[in-house]
Amino acid sequence: MVVPQQSLKIGLILGSVREVSNTAGVSNWLIKTIRSQFPSLDICSVNLGTSPGHPLPFVLESAIPEGISIASLPNAYSHPDVRAWSAYVSSLDGVILLTPQYNWGYPAALKNALDHLFHEWVNKPVAIMTIGGRGGTKAAEGLKIVCKGGLDMQVVESSVNIALPKELIRGPGVVNGQEEFLAAYEAKVKESVEELIKFIGQAKEPKAA
């Protein structure tokens, strides 16, 4: 097992902004699972609808994030919530994206949160975890393209794709984090987080002169 030598701050960003969602229940299970296996990780959950500074505006600023000077961050953004988002993402050692799959894609709120920034994401290690009727693999594929190709993030290859029973997708009930079927994904979570920690360690290594 890869064990970090110091506490690492990991942002667990939830793709769903539904008032009642399966993502919230899965996140409860995920945080508990990760903390039991990697107690030195500081897992911070971010709800893009209700966490401080959210929801972010859907109207993007005139300046393209990639063209903003790194030295001017986060003050280069005019909107206070975007400035706060920039500072928060910059403070993270790594990111876990946990999202449902909507119509073969991922929610607009998550894409919006990614698109407001650029330099803050570059080289940031990220693990992608999805949920859906067949595990949300289409959403995972889309996120890998955006995170790796568009934002130059260090994307963990070992994604976690959690298949939900149909009654939890279309019925009145939702995941609460205690369901037995989630245990089948513990090994994949461990594998993914270990790779995330490895990427973080590589990012923190001093660059050769």
Protein described:
With 209 residues, the protein is an alpha/beta fold. It has a single domain (9-203), classed as 3-Layer(aba) Sandwich (Rossmann fold). The protein has six helices and six strands, in the order βαβαβαβαββαα. The protein has helices at 22-37, 80-91, 108-115, 137-150, 166-170, 186-204, and strands at residues 8-14, 41-47, 94-100, 125-132, 154-155, 160-163. Strands 1, 2, 3, 4, 5 and 6 form a six-stranded parallel beta sheet that branches. Helix 1 packs across helix 6. It starts with 7 loop residues before the first strand and ends in a 5-residue tail after the last helix. 38% of the residues are buried.
Blueprint of the fold:
Elements: E1 8-14, H1 22-37, E2 41-47, H2 80-91, E3 94-100, H3 108-115, E4 125-132, H4 137-150, E5 154-155, E6 160-163, H5 166-170, H6 186-204
Parallel strand pairs: 1-2, 1-3, 3-4, 4-5, 4-6
Helix pairs in contact: 1-6
Q: State the share of residues found in helices, binned by percent.
A: 25-40%
CATH C-level label: Alpha Beta
Molecular shape: globular
Q: Kindly identify the CATH topology.
A: Rossmann fold
Rounded mean pLDDT score? 94
Question: Order of SSEs, N→C?
Answer: EHEHEHEHEEHH
Counted up, domains total 1
Number of strand segments:
6
Radius of gyration, in Å, reads: 17 Å
Low-confidence stretches: none
| Content of β-strand | 15-25%
Please report the distance between the alpha carbons of the first and last residues: 31 Å
Chain oligomer state: single chain
Estimated structural class: alpha/beta
